[in-house]
Amino acid sequence: MFIGKIVSASSHIDYVCQVFAKGEAEVVPEPSDYGFGQFVAIEAADGSSLVGLVHNTSLLNPEFGNLGPRLSPHEDLAVFAPDYLSEQATLVAILVVGLLDAHLQARQGVPSIAAHPDARARALARAEIDAFHRAHGHLQMAYLPLLTGLQSALAPSLLEQTFALLSTLFPADSARINVLRANVAWRARILPTG
User: pTM score, two decimals?
Assistant: First the structure.
């Protein structure tokens, strides 16, 4: 299911996706489809998909604070001004952590290609999450430095949520994931102090 389209980027791996609203897609995505820590795919021109994690949400409402008179109540705009466009939007920030090609071959880390404006983003299917994390039968998290290097107050929560999700999806590897989780948590406590 497509959740939205790419509207901007602040870097090669940090994109902003405008979530589809009513009337913009056949099926309007639910908040759980683009929730914090959700794995998503961004369509690339060559048939591959950039794989990313939702790491922030912003709400855009230009009408906030506009207390002036209106010609029509909001409910009547569909009748009296059918061409009126609501400028309210939900924006989600996506940190790209790798690439899945058309044959579900994964490359983790900073991809060589970038998304284009209006590229569609969608929730990653379970089979795609498996393919992205399995290399030769082993769990891979080569994108971990991208997450630990994220300069955001939400980075520790994103890491924790990712570890929790992967422990659930890959129970046979949960011991290894917990070692990584403990190491990252220890570094987060120790390194800032000296």
Answer: 0.84
